[in-house]
Amino acid sequence: MASEPMSIGSSAQDPPPVPEATSQEPKYGGHTRFELELEFVQALGNPEYVNYLASRKFLQNPAFVAYLDYLQYWTRPPYLQYITYPTSCLKMLELLQVERFRKDILSPNLTHALVTEGMKAAVEWHRESLS
Question: Environment class of residue 40 by beta-carbon count within 10 Å: exposed (0-12), middle (13-18) or buried (19+)?
Fold first, then answer.
């Protein structure tokens, strides 16, 4: 199925339809826009990946920053229910809206602190779920 290529400039579009309505949605490399954006938002939960994006100067690109703003739709139903670990992903998406954070995430110390904080939160959640 022929379609327009997806780009960072696609942020001016409406959010993709939820999976129940994607049967006619164009595919990009075999995946729907919904699937690609979900995977990317979930990847943002990894501070090391966000540090990588910063090190490659993606977080300085105004079009990419606009794309991150566009992805805010994941914070609302019905999209929110599809995120496996919403706390870390959506917190990072929120932090990435702040210019100072987009600069600070280049610091290995901050990246390490966020990874450590995430591991502590996961251990605490696991302990609470066993109780």
Answer: middle
What is the value of pTM for the model shown? 0.81
pLDDT digits (tens, 9 = 90+) for 119-129: 888 888 778 88
**CATH class given for the domain over 8-130:** mainly alpha
The residue ranges of every structural domain in the chain are 8-130
* Residue-wise DSSP of 32-70: EHHHHHHHHHHHTT-HHHHHHHHHTTGGG-HHHHHHHHH
Placement of tokens 């910063």 in the chain: 54
Q: In the block, which residue shows the tokens 């327009």?
A: 4
